[in-house]
Amino acid sequence: MIYLDSAATTLLKPATVEHAVIRAMRMYASPGRGGHMPSLGAASVVYDCREAAAKLFHVESPENIVFTFNATHALNIAINSLVHHGARVLVSGFEHNSVTRPLNALNADIVRCGTFLYDTKRTLDDFKANIRDADLVVCTHVSNVFGYILPVYEIGQMCRENNVPFIVDASQSAGILELDVGKLGADFVCMPGHKGLMGPQGTGILICSSKARPLLYGGTGSDSISQQMPEYLPERLEAGTHNVCGIAGLKAGIEYVAQNGCDSIFRHEMKLMNIMIQRLMYEKVKLFYSEHKNQCPVLSCVFDGIDCEEMAYRLGQMDICVRSGLHCAPYAHESAGTLNTGTVRMSFSPFLTEDQVLSAADNIKQIINNA
């Protein structure tokens, strides 16, 4: 099998992640629910994961690392903490439905900025033109469809200068790009555990720099006499039993990223993407990528003479895993003019080889030529 769908989920993970999950299943109970060793062991691995994440993302205190089910859960907490009904919210032209649907549910006035593919100057100009009247800015760090790296540090600076809260969706950047939360200055940063951080599905992280409103209410293992959620983090946002097995695996994934370095992972994946581009660029295919420094290793394409869904199906029959469609991001496709067709998306992994990429490219060429 050749797996080219890591932007959805990293199927190929470090062996340490699997070992950590199995160990947690066999040894750990619920943290904060007892003084026995299974509970204390669970509490230890959960706290160690917070520490590892805080160190990787330059967060001052591990208590500001809140565990969620995924990035969507984290984004819903962040958005519901900052958005009131009818609020004017600036977003990029590349946002995922996990941003836009919660905003629509709150009847927010959504203003799209930067609908110019790979054009950083136009993106910044658009945010600058609209930010003075904004109640909030929400921006993805990297487009999950086109790999476009948005200028989130500059947007964050713009938000601070205008006293506008800022939420960053780091779903496609965490574990691949260096992410300095202190420098970013966002109120909330949201990310999944199962993509670039190499953790299991069902894990995510919300990094809090502002006061948050709970989305779920229930037991926390602390302050049990009170009928209100605790005011302090992370307990305020972590109602119910933790996904200890998932968090243990996430810790191992974060440690893998820290040991190998985001820069090394990024360079390897970009090398593989460039091999794919070079192999396909003269074929009947339109490739969406930037030759500048605002590109992450996510490659979308459309084909002459063959539908994207058909291409993905045929590749799947060959055990080559890609994703087709709108990728839950219609704004991005409107920005690129692919709303009616969707794209085939290929995304890369530290465990993918050059030979696998060349083989996948040759099979794509064969399908194109036989169409």
What can you tell me about this protein's structure?
By secondary structure, this protein is α/β, with parallel strands linked by helices. The protein has a domain at 2-11 and 261-370: Aspartate Aminotransferase, domain 1. Helix content is 40%, strand content 15%. It contains 12 helices and 13 strands. The chain has helices at residues 15-27, 37-56, 71-82, 97-105, 120-130, 152-161, 181-184, 244-260, 262-280, 308-317, 330-336, 354-370, and strands at 2-3, 65-68, 88-92, 109-113, 136-140, 166-169, 188-192, 204-208, 285-288, 298-303, 320-321, 323-325, 343-347. The chain has a 7-stranded mixed beta sheet with strand order 2-8-7-6-5-3-4, with helices on both faces. It has a 4-stranded antiparallel beta sheet with strand order 9-10-13-12, covered by helices on one side. The protein has a two-stranded parallel sheet with strand order 1-11. Strand 6, helix 7 and strand 7 form a beta-alpha-beta unit. It is globular. The model has no long low-confidence stretch (mean pLDDT 96).
